[in-house]
From TrEMBL:
One of its GO terms (biological process) is peptide transport. CDD domains: PBP2_OppA. This is Oligopeptide-binding protein OppA. It comes from Desulfosporosinus acididurans. The lineage of its organism: Bacteria, Bacillati, Bacillota, Clostridia, Eubacteriales. The gene is oppA_1. InterPro entries: Peptide/Ni-bd, SBP_5, SBP_5_dom.
């Protein structure tokens, strides 16, 4: 009897041990290996200028708000944000949180960080994102003193921000890297804190364990992060190769779990293989008309050129999964109506119609394209811009019987010619700075520094001014819808396509938020 009991005990131990072996052998490592597109130029969030550092900084820092999967700002480091009835004053109460080294995060850290971005000598690429704050732009231009800027520390956990005018999307701006807090104690103690992983300090869901420059950055879960319980990853490795071909090869060799820096020649192959993923991106590719020159000063000509295009054909045969644009503002921007975005509410504002285009051209004095002057399309030579320009050139020849030339220029010359209206038609693009239609529509104000078309419309300006100054979201959105209708009727530009984010990510990785601002947020990521 005792012998049987011993035998049963041995069997039980073997079964239990075997069970644990199975569990251990099938456990999932909560680790992601991702290539963000290269070595970050800096990890100082106030001085970031590119997507690689933005993606990494989203993991290492957190602002007053954080954009959720629907691009709606949610409270993050802030416990409460109280907005005055006139929309000018934001009183922000901070949570009791710490930096990764244990230093307390205070309102002073936020103010000092933002003022750092506003020092013109530091040349912060996105300093203008702070210009909504009262006197921020004047301080940047050295027109006022630091104490005149509308950033006030009420106490260690309370900030009071005064704006120049109401800015309904200000909470979205607060989620951007420019608004991230830097530990001032650490920054003063270590001059090069932003370039050295051993002394780097952040306040986000992850912290740096090791940084081998131009090779790999290893992040681990930040135990001092206030919301660490909801961070599932134990390790997040960023591979810093800039070469998209090498990154794609590393993924296909099983050395990476994802990347975003895809080269055009790989996109169609990856799509065919089933590895390509796409997400909406807050960007529009379009062509400007110089409306001060004949025949482009004639509305009928501009409309004819727009509706004679076959955007769907262009997307399928020339580009890599982009979305045809039948209006200017892209999708994914929330409207005032719950669960609706601005594009869906506004609908398509361009209807392609070759017969109508020919009619308009004839009415303008160019039947079947006869006597139409030879125009030139200006495009930038960096990137993949020649192929779309050639496709548009061929489309106009085929559908309207007109000839256009192509002229590629290096970036600086291309920019200067647009700014000086020294062009006929110019390829252009715009990537949104924040999740609101205003980031696109303010471009074409009569006084807009990026208008570059010679076009001006008083009714358009009035609608934009209403949207800029009225805190009521319904009023704002109605005004911006009306402005976009005017823009698409007057047609100083031709929207061609909306950008998409082409990327690779293994199917067993869930919870990564792919932002239309081109960011990847790994806070809620997990491996299944």
């Amino acid at each position: 009897m005792k012998r049987n009991k011993r035998l049963l005990a041995v069997i039980a131990v073997i079964l239990i041990f075997g069970f644990f072996l199975i569990v251990c052998s099938t456990s999932i490592e909560m680790k992601i290996r991702f290539a963000p597109g290269g070595e970050p130029e800096t990890l100082d969030p106030q001085l970031y200028s590119g997507i690689p550092e933005a993606i990494i900084e989203m993991a290492l820092f957190e602002g007053i708000t954080r954009l959720d999967k629907n691009n709606v700002p949610q409270l993050a480091v802030a416990n409460n944000v109280e907005v005055s009835p006139d929309g000018l004053i934001y009183r922000i109460t901070l949570k009791n949180t710490k930096f990764s080294n244990g230093d307390p995060l205070t309102a002073y850290d936020f103010k000092a960080s933002w003022m750092h971005a506003l020092k013109s000598e530091d040349k912060a690429a996105y300093a203008y994102q702070l210009f909504y704050i009262k006197n921020a732009e004047a301080y940047y231009s050295r027109g006022v003193k630091a104490e005149d800027v509308g950033i006030k520390v009420v106490n260690v956990r309370t900030l009071e921000i005064t704006l120049e005018t109401p800015c309904p999307f200000f909470k979205s701006l607060l989620a951007l890297p420019t608004y991230f807090p830097v530990d001032q104690q650490n920054a003063q103690a270590h001059k090069d804190w932003y370039a050295d992983g051993t002394v780097f300090v952040g306040n986000g869901p992850f912290m740096i364990k090791k940084w081998s420059h131009k090779d790999k950055m290893i992040l681990v879960k930040n135990p001092n992060y206030y919301d660490a319980a909801n961070v599932k990853l134990e390790e997040l490795d960023f591979y810093l190769a800039q070469d998209g071909n090498k990154a794609t090869a590393a993924f296909e060799a099983g050395k990476l779990d994802g990347l975003n820096n895809l080269v055009p020649e790989d996109i169609f192959r990856l799509k065919k293989d089933g590895n390509l993923k796409t997400a909406p991106m807050l960007g529009t590719d379009f062509y400007r008309f110089n409306t001060t020159k004949k025949p482009l000063n004639d509305l009928r000509v501009r409309q004819a050129l727009s509706i004679a295009l076959n955007r769907q054909d262009l997307m399928g045969n020339v580009l890599g999964g982009e979305i045809p644009a039948y209006a200017f503002v892209p999708g994914t921007i929330p409207d005032a109506v719950p669960d609706k975005d601005f594009r869906k509410m506004g609908g398509n504002l361009i209807t392609e119609d070759i017969a109508k285009a020919k009619q308009l051209l004839a009415e303008a004095g160019y039947p079947e394209g006869r006597n139409f002057p030879v125009l030139t399309i200006l495009y930038n030579t960096n990137g993949k811009q020649r192929l779309p320009a050639q496709a548009i050139q061929n489309c106009w020849k085929r559908n309207l019987g007109i000839n256009v030339n192509l002229q590629g220029q290096v970036w600086d010359n291309y920019q200067q010619n647009q700014q000086g209206l020294s062009y006929d038609i110019a390829r252009a693009c715009w990537i949104g700075d924040y999740v609101d239609p205003m980031t696109f529509l303010a471009i074409f104000l009569s006084s807009g520094g990026n208008n570059e078309t010679g076009w001006s419309n008083g009714a358009y300006d009035k609608n934009i001014e209403t949207a800029q100054k009225n805190p009521d979201q319904r009023v704002r959105m109605e005004a911006m819808h009306e402005a976009e209708k005017i823009l698409m009727q007057e047609m100083p530009i031709i929207p061609v396509y909306y950008y998409v984010q082409n990327y690779i990510l293994k199917d067993n990785i869930k919870g990564v938020i792919v932002s239309p601002l081109d960011f990847f947020d790994f806070k809620y990521a997990a491996v299944q």
